[in-house]
Here is the input.
Amino acid sequence: MIIGVTALARAGKDTFADYLVSKYGFPKLNMSDVIAEELVRRGMEPTKDNRSLLGDEWRKQYGMDIVIRKTLEKAQSYDNVIITGVRSVEEVDFLRKNSKRFCLVALVADLDVRFARRDNLDPETLEGFTARDERDVKNKGLGKVMEMADYTLTNNYKTTEDFYRDIDVLMHKIKN
Here is the structure.
């Protein structure tokens, strides 16, 4: 089984995935890791902005499903895997066509909550933060991807325990 997670920045993709790793034994693959590896190879800092920009460049050059193709190569060695960062309709289509069992989960969180969660890899200003959101929605089709989700979870929680509770309920639904 492949569970894909999609969301705007800081909605909880990694928290969701890390919980599946720790509680359910899923290996985690982050789609932006293949982009970060290329940035490092080029001698560039793998910031979120640089990853977003290189991802856009790759998608224009090699097709909208390039990042998932590279990620799925790594996923083939696992029975179950969680993949974070699904951002384009073509990526979802590729996963649905090339996976025995695929489920897409969209995470949503309010802008002020997401902005408060940022770290040193994120833009420091609200303007920069929302500009990245806009690139994800417009350039990659993230809004359409979120509409394609099999399940949607809202993550405006102040504690991870509350979020984990909802993840457990969702995993029960997915397993059944």
Observations:
- Residues 136 and 142 are 6 Å apart (CA to CA).
- The chain has a mean pLDDT of 92.
